[in-house]
Write a structure and sequence with these properties.
The chain is an alpha+beta fold. It folds into three domains: about 5-70, no CATH class; about 75-175, Tyrosine recombinase, N-terminal domain (DNA polymerase, domain 1); about 185-370, hpI Integrase, Chain A, CATH 1.10.443.10. About 40% of the residues lie in helices and about 10% in strands. The chain has 15 helices and eight strands. The chain has helices at about 50-65, 75-80, 95-110, 120-130, 135-155, 195-205, 210-220, 225-230, 275-280, 300-310, 310-315, 325-340, 345-350, 355-360, 365-380; strands at about 15-25, 25-35, 40-50, 235, 240-245, 245-250, 255-260, 265-270. The strands form three sheets. Strands 1-2-3 form a three-stranded antiparallel β-sheet, with helices on one face. The longest helix has 20 residues, at about 135-155.
Length: about 400
């Protein structure tokens, strides 16, 4: 265990004395002061390799007497010292948990040993580069976010940094993982309805609920948590609409029911292929009853579907090794985009805040532009030429 005396920091306003002793492998630098409460002489010692490091150590101790902070603190020690203060303003039922996991599993193992004052933007960029080789865009996002927040606290504490070197890293282009170009999301979607039914049938061999989950998530272009949150009353038979109003998923402290990710209700048109499933799931049920439950009457989460169906092996056996549970939402969104649904309508169906996200589902070829040109040409061909009786061919005088 490290000597606690080597973690002591001088209190604000004390007078320091310093001394240096040369050793075979470098220097022994010591700072001493009188503790204001006990009136005992205490100090801190470090072993360094050069005169420059000796002076740096002394400067750090002098700075501590002015600010009361520890300029030698590592990111891991600083994060431990502030506890969950960096989580202020985060949703404790959703955002806080993945960010906390990102801090613990990726940020601290990569940068925890580095002194806060020594963390640079370049160091953070190289760390993100390494994450990109292993993790998805959402995982990287949930790792950058807590790093930014922890270092924001260090800036507020004046803890040896005046600006946050991670601040603009959150906006950096994370390569193919984050920036979606037109049609980029097609690769995550099933090719056609026959393939979807084949997948649903395979899941149904485990239990019908898993088959229904697959069909609902795909044909409603819904997240797994939103499928879990559906109630019988959300099915509007008169207008042939299914309303996505809430999500239900495991969160910190148990299952959580909350608004959709966009925090607004959104209508999804009822496709013909989904109608018999909805008829069966709504039959003889009260409006407030859950539309879909698992085999034991519990909330059906994407993790439950994964474990119960042995998802990775199942989709690989069907020739769909890259299909994730979230790929079911991509499937419905892609099919609707390919059907020619107007972009602003598709944005409403999917609940995207930005239409740029919705554009990711457009087909990468130019058939939508060709269709637009065909419609425009058809319109123009039917428009009679305007004749102006007062028109003059010559110049006006």
């Amino acid at each position: 265990m490290a000597d606690p005396r080597n973690r002591r920091m001088p209190p604000v306003g004390v007078k320091l004395t310093t001394d240096v002793e040369r050793r075979v492998d470098g220097f022994r630098a010591r700072v001493r002061w009188t503790d204001p409460s006990t009136h005992k002489r205490v100090g801190r010692v470090t072993h360094v390799r050069s005169h420059e490091e000796v002076e740096e150590f002394f400067d750090q101790m002098r700075a501590a007497t002015e600010t009361g902070n520890d300029p030698t603190v590592t990111l891991a020690d600083y994060a431990a010292s502030i506890g969950d203060r960096w989580q202020r303003g985060l949703d404790p039922t959703s955002t806080a948990e993945p960010d906390e996991t990102g801090l613990r599993l990726r940020v601290l193992p990569a940068l925890g040993h580095v002194r806060v004052a020594k963390i640079t933007a370049g160091m953070i960029d190289r760390t993100i580069d390494a994450w990109e080789a292993e993790h998805s865009a959402s995982t990287i996002k949930n790792s950058i976010a807590p790093l930014v927040r922890v270092l924001d606290e260090a800036v507020r504490d004046d803890d040896a940094i005046s600006i946050n070197p991670a601040k603009h890293r959150a906006r950096r282009n994370l390569g193919n993982n984050v920036t979606h170009t037109t049609g980029a999301l097609h690769q995550y979607a099933l090719p056609d309805l026959a393939t979807l039914r084949k997948l649903a049938k395979a899941c149904g061999k485990v239990h019908q609920a898993y088959s229904d989950h697959v069909m609902l998530a795909s044909l409603l272009a819904a997240r797994g948590s939103e499928v879990a949150g559906l109630q019988v009353g959300d099915v509007d038979w008169d207008n042939r609409i299914v309303w996505i109003r809430r999500q239900h998923y495991p969160g910190k402290g148990g299952l959580v029911v909350k608004k959709t990710k966009g925090r607004r209700d959104r209508p999804v048109p009822m496709l013909d292929a989904l109608e018999p499933i909805l008829e069966r799931l709504t039959q003889d049920k009260l409006p407030e009853a859950s539309l879909l439950r698992g085999p034991r009457g519990r909330v059906l989460t994407t993790a439950t579907v994964r474990d119960a169906t042995h998802w990775d092996d199942l989709v690989a056996g069907l020739g769909l090794p890259d299909l994730t549970r979230h790929g079911l939402r991509h499937t419905g969104a892609t099919w609707m985009a390919d059907a020619g649904i107007a972009l602003h309508v598709l944005q409403e169906i999917l609940g995207h805040q930005s239409i740029e996200t919705t554009k990711g589902y457009l087909h990468p070829d130019h058939r939508h532009l060709a269709e637009a040109a065909r419609q425009a040409n058809q319109f123009l061909s039917k428009t009679p030429q305007r004749k102006d009786a007062n028109r003059r061919d010559g110049p006006r005088l």
